[in-house]
Specification:
Layout: H1 2-27, H2 31-42, H3 47-67, H4 72-90, H5 103-118, H6 125-130, H7 141-163
Length: 171
C-alpha cells in the first residue's frame, strides 16, 4: 500500500536525520569533549554525561524509528530530546528556526508522535516481529501515541529537573 511506503519514507528520513545528529556528537567537529563543553555552557551538567546520553539517545532513537522497532519508544526519545533542546536552547528565541527558535524541535517531536500513532507500517520490524500478536496493538494507535508522549515527557521533565542549571544571566 502507498501508506506503508509513505510511512517507511518518513520513518527512515526522520530516523536517520536524528541518528546523524548523534553520530556528529560522537565523531564530528568537537566530538564528545566539544559537545560536553557546549552542554555545560547551556546549563546541562555534567556536560560529559549529557553529551554521551544525548548522542546515544539520538542514535538509538533515530535508528529505532528508521527500522520501526518498538516504535513508540524511539518516538518517546524524540519527544524527550526535542523538549530538552527547545527548553534549554531555543525557547527564548521565538518560533522560527531562522532565529534559532523551537520550530524544528516541534516538527521532529510531532512527526515522531504521529508515527507512533499511525504505527510503523507493513515495512517495519514491528510488523515483522509482532503482527498478529496482542503486543502489536501496543505499538500503534492511541496506545502508541500515549506511550510516546508520556514516556517522552517523563524523560525530558526528569532530566531538566534533575540536571538543568541555567547559567547566570550576564549584563
Amino acid at each position: 500500500m502507498a501508506s506503508d511506503v509513505a510511512i517507511l519514507i518518513l520513518r527512515v528520513v526522520l530516523g536517520l536525520t536524528m541518528a546523524a545528529h548523534g553520530y556528529n556528537k560522537f565523531f564530528g567537529g568537537g566530538r564528545i569533549p566539544g559537545t560536553a563543553g557546549w552542554f555545560e555552557s547551556i546549563g546541562m551538567k555534567p556536560g560529559a554525561f549529557h553529551a554521551r546520553v544525548a548522542a546515544g539517545t539520538e542514535m538509538a532513537a533515530g535508528i529505532g524509528l528508521a527500522l520501526g522497532l518498538l516504535t513508540p519508544v524511539p518516538a518517546a526519545g524524540f519527544v524527550a530530546l526535542m523538549l530538552v533542546a527547545a527548553w534549554t536552547v531555543h525557547r527564548f528565541n521565538g518560533f522560527f528556526i531562522v532565529k534559532e527558535g523551537w520550530e524544528y524541535n516541534l516538527i521532529l517531536a510531532t512527526a515522531a508522535v504521529a508515527i507512533a500513532g499511525t504505527g510503523a507500517g507493513r515495512y517495519s520490524l514491528d510488523h515483522l516481529l509482532f503482527a498478529g500478536t496482542g503486543f502489536y496493538d501496543l505499538l500503534h494507535g492511541w496506545c502508541g501515541m500515549v506511550i510516546a508522549v508520556l514516556l517522552g515527557l517523563a524523560g525530558a521533565i526528569g532530566q531538566l529537573v534533575i540536571f538543568y542549571r541555567p547559567p547566570a544571566k550576564t549584563g
